[in-house]
Design a protein that fits this description.
The protein is globular and about 55 Å long. It folds into 2 domains: 73 residues, no CATH class; 132 residues, Leucine-rich Repeat Variant. With 224 residues, the chain is mainly α. Helices cover 70% and strands 0% of the residues.
């Protein structure tokens, strides 16, 4: 699909009711058509990978065109500078997480960026760091445990961040890494015990919530 064809399709699928529904979940872009994610995935599939088209769609600055940009951009052409530029424009959690799930984790510098961003102070850039850790633990089936375990110091360091957007992402990363296999499960649980001792409401919430899942029957049965 061409740029103009995509915009026409988004206009056709525009849903004001869905826009109101998104607000209840903290999805608050400045400009949106209210198109559902399954429709965006279909459009992306019909378009195929096209880096130049992705850059043009991102510059349009609507929720849908930016999510589509993350779906059709080419990982090998996605530079560190481009990742930083996009991350600096995140203003709500959905676009942050979509970029990490659709594109950033596939880049050759995904692990480097996860560590770098998790140490930044900007709210959504920091979230992107932990969202990227989460996606890598979930989708990178061939990575060695040691590479995921290297994220633990960053998780512990940021467990005191009280901002909900960041706090939830730190928790998400810890839980996803801990569900990877039995060895990482044990090490993640050990880390929750360390985090629980930190004098911070955020840290105690992260530890309590994470260990509940990591020690739960569902995770235990799956890992066994």
């Amino acid at each position: 699909m061409t740029y103009n064809e995509i915009l026409s399709e988004l206009e056709r699928l525009k849903d004001p009711v869905n826009i109101e529904g998104m607000k209840r979940f903290g999805i608050t872009p400045k400009h949106t058509f209210g198109v559902r994610l399954p429709d965006l995935r279909r459009i992306a599939k019909e378009s195929g990978r096209d880096h130049e088209l992705a850059l043009k769609l991102w510059s349009k600055d609507t929720r849908e065109t930016r999510i589509l940009a993350s779906m059709i951009a080419e990982p090998k052409k996605t530079s560190s500078e481009l990742m930083d530029a996009w991350a600096s424009e995140f203003t709500y959690w959905e676009i942050c997480d979509q970029c990490c799930m659709n594109l950033f984790w596939l880049t050759p510098i995904a692990y480097e960026k996860a560590c770098e961003w998790s140490s930044r102070d900007e709210e959504y850039v920091k979230r992107a760091g932990f969202a990227l850790m989460t996606v890598l633990a979930w989708k990178d089936k061939l990575v060695l445990d040691e590479k995921l375990e290297a994220f633990f110091p960053y998780i512990k360091e940021s467990s005191i961040d009280e901002r909900p957007i960041v706090k939830k992402a730190v928790n998400w990363a810890l839980r996803q890494i801990g569900k990877r296999d039995r060895a990482l499960n044990s090490k993640a649980i050990k880390l929750t015990r360390e985090i629980e001792l930190i004098d911070s409401k955020a840290a105690k919430w992260i530890a309590k919530d994470a260990v509940r899942e990591l020690e739960g029957d569902a995770v235990r049965k799956r890992l066994a």
